[in-house]
Amino acid sequence: MGFVTDEKIALLGAIQSLFEGSMYTFVFLWTPALSPNDEDIPHGFIFATFMLASMLGSSFAARLMAKNSPKVESYMQIVFVVSSASLMLPILTTFLVPPSNVKGGGISFAGSIQLLGFCTFESCVGIFWPSIMKMRSQYIPEEARSTIMNFFRIPLNLFVCIVLYNVNAFPITVMFGMCSIFLFVASILQRRLAAIADKPKAEDWTAMKERDTEADPLNAP
């Protein structure tokens, strides 16, 4: 049982690091992604839209967690896949939408599509925070929770610093692709976490069934 618990903590820490690393990288990428040709975009309005999307995501997560089904370990798999797909849009629009070479002006058609994907990602961020907090409360002891999660933030902070230092060394599509891959890996780890989260219950049910079987001869007339 100790190994299972340790694996849950390791998976949870890796999931949080992958998601937060992608999220913090996204913070520095969305502006150049929406204005590659120095378009005049409404930064304040877009940021407010992101915050609204995040708030709606948190509200939706609260409704999900108020129910017994689906479990947080289950629906977070979908959240990570959706967030991964949403950050793939800048790459897809690069290949599918003809680029605009006009300097200035308003947001382009490709930028509008990306903005929709970014709002979707922010909704996933809103779902992520209350959900990850619930999983942390389930799998990590309260007295060691902050220490353990801070330990996992060490590689996260190193990763973000490296990305920011080399942000101009790679095309923006490469950066978004990297974030998308990280989020997809997080969905795989979340699937593993959901699998081992149900394992103890299955073992308890099997043990209970065996005890009932052993008790039947004693209760026989």
How would you explain this protein's 3D organization?
It is a multi-pass membrane protein. Its main location: membrane. GO terms for molecular function: molybdate ion transmembrane transporter activity. Pfam families: MFS_5. This protein has 221 residues and is an all-alpha fold. The protein has one domain (2-202): MFS general substrate transporter like domains (Growth Hormone, Chain: A). 81% of the residues lie in helices and 0% in strands. The protein has helices spanning 2-34, 43-65, 72-86, 89-96, 109-139, 145-165, 172-219. Helix 2 (43-65) packs parallel to helix 5 (109-139), helix 3 packs antiparallel against helix 7 (172-219) and helix 4 (89-96) runs antiparallel to helix 5. The two termini are 38 Å apart. Residues 1-5, 201-208 and 217-221 have low confidence and may be disordered.
Features:
mainly alpha, 81% helix, globular, Growth Hormone, Chain: A
Quick recap:
With 221 residues, this protein is an all-alpha fold. It is built from seven helices and no strands. The protein has one domain (2-202): MFS general substrate transporter like domains (Growth Hormone, Chain: A), CATH 1.20.1250.
Runs in which pLDDT lies below 50 for 5 or more consecutive residues are 1-5, 201-208, 217-221
In round numbers, the mean pLDDT is: 86
Q: Helical content, roughly?
A: over 70%
Q: So, CATH architecture?
A: Up-down Bundle
Domains, number: 1
User: In DSSP terms, counting alpha (H) and pi (I) runs of 4 or more, how many helices?
Assistant: 7
Shape: globular
| CATH homology-level superfamily | MFS general substrate transporter like domains
Order of helices and strands: HHHHHHH
